[in-house]
Specification:
This protein has about 60 residues and is mainly α. The protein contains 3 helices and no strands.
């Protein structure tokens, strides 16, 4: 079952509350502490994606004699 995702404009408190009460989350993560960790992790992932964080990689070619 996919994890809940924050809705556009939803506050962190509203999302975490909804996530904690989600039926599938309660079944998958019966331990409240673990479920809260997953919900907060989902919020952070969503927040980072919406802030436009990008990682740039530079490839350097090294030639050996």
């Amino acid at each position: 079952m996919p994890l809940p995702s924050p809705n556009q404009g939803e506050s962190q408190d509203d999302f975490v509350g909804r996530c904690m009460d989600h039926d599938a989350m309660n079944q998958e993560y019966p331990d409240q502490t673990q479920r809260a960790a997953v919900c907060y992790s989902q919020w952070q992932r969503h927040s980072q994606n919406n802030q436009g964080l990008h990682v740039n990689f530079h490839v350097i070619r090294v030639e050996q004699d």
